[in-house]
Sequence to fold (504 residues):
Amino acid sequence: MTGENTTKRILSILLAALIGGGALAACGEQADTGAPASTTAASDGNAVADTTAEETTRHMPDLPDQDLGGREFNIVLGGNEEHGITPDDISAEEQTGDTINDARYERNLHVQEKFNIKLVSIVCNTGTGGDSMNKVKKAVTAGDTTYDAAFLGGYDTCSLARNGMLYDMYTIPNLDLSQEWWDQNANNALTIKNHMFYTTGDISTFDDDATYVIMFNKRLANNVGLPNFYEMVKNGTWTLDNYKANAVTVHEDLNGDGVFDQNDRYGILIWDDSMMGVVNSTGTKCCIVNDNGEIELTIFNDKVVNAISSFFEVAFDNAVSITYQRSKYGGWDGNLCTSMFISDQALFWMRLMLDVANLRNMETDFGILPYMKYDESTPEYYCTEGSWHSIFVCVPISISDPELTGAVLEMLAAEGRYTTTPAYYDVALKGKYARDEESLEMLDIIVKSRCYDLGWYYAIGGYNEEVMNLLRNFKDGFTTMYEKKATKAQKDIDKINAAFDEIG
Fold:
């Protein structure tokens, strides 16, 4: 074994130990509660298993093989539009040499052979409230048993859940959500009135794609002698104040025309949705599930008020930050922010893990960091699971065979722990995309700090859009905005809690 291969093997083992051994941090000053006791004692559902170990050491569900005669297992696939592509965690018709595709193929093959079934992907149009959600709605209303499971966007799963159209996943036979291949952070955060209707884990890699991160340009950081950001993360000094102090060091009017636009260099490329990440980075959620199992509004506190005002000190400085979704830059253009970062036109880029793949051709080395803490007293880092980009597995209440659905989903998640999740990490961080070994440890921190916020997913009070509107309008008025929307927010919460009472 060469030295390089030895290093990769050690990194794989270390990463497995790091991710598999830590309990997930909860985002919020109050803990999410309400999940049945069976969901509270498991490790991180998106941990990377030690794939260097013998296959016989794999921890797998104790489910018997079955011969279902090639029965089709139909999975609806939808989600919110991202570059016109429907997120698809299932399809892999053949091996192509692509790492993630081939991992899906292997996973699917194992599951299909175990039950003698055929996994069928029903890929729908993208967009909130689109074809995928409507297919599930119509099936449930008509008592149609065609669909066995679904992977849908967060807004859609919330709508279906509150309208009683999804199976309570805690009650599905053969589905053990306490296992390490299910994300316990998601389970705990998404449980309302002791019911949970959608979740994620190693059954999907889109939970990783949808996680907020900060990418940084190493060349720009080195050129001005900035500190080691990785060490700051590890020693707890990667805070909002230090983030701002470093962001103001590299901006430059590159063409000397006296106007800062998309042709110049900035400290930060700011995505509108970053505002939800700033709120969560304080350890606060827009909403939590309280001790009674009910949704409760928690977005307003001094930390959030101060963090937003502090962040706006750099965000509103047009020479330091570019809010690139504004109309003067052409409106939303996913290529603009990518090309600017690739061209060394920004030190930091606040976006999602999915954008790391778009940097494969970037010549300059870059790294990946979690969202910064509010201050050094903040106990953890908190990285938002994006509401627009999130994908959750759910089950229509009209399914014909709950035992089979539970068994198939359990096997897909368990097999994914040893196939698709390691493949994702290998491609994202050890292969094509990221450029350094330290990013492995950063991703461990990011995954463990993933923050699921029902306030965003249910659009409580419209706060998800309103916090972005503060940035869009260059207006530091969080307290006024909060107070204006508080009555509507409470009405939203009351309706949702009442709906779950009826479902219960």
Notes: Residues 478-503 form the longest helix (26 residues).
